[in-house]
Design a protein that fits this description.
With about 60 residues, this protein is of the alpha+beta class. It is about 35% helix and about 25% strand.
């Protein structure tokens, strides 16, 4: 996944176009740079799974 697609994935998640997306250990560092700069990151959370994959979804507060 190209770095520019990370922000699109976050936008799609926030807009309800997708329910979740997965970040692999190989993409984690590049994703973190985009995630920390994303203005709505407090609305999105990730859950780590076995194998280092993280599933991100919209918070249900």
């Amino acid at each position: 996944m190209a770095e520019e697609n990370f922000e699109q994935e976050l936008d799609d998640l926030r807009d309800g176009k997708i329910d979740q997306f997965v970040i692999t250990p190989e993409n984690f560092q590049a994703f973190q740079r985009v995630y920390h700069a994303y203005p709505y990151r407090t609305q999105i959370e990730g859950k780590a799974n076995i194998g280092g994959k993280i599933v991100y979804h919209l918070r249900q507060d």
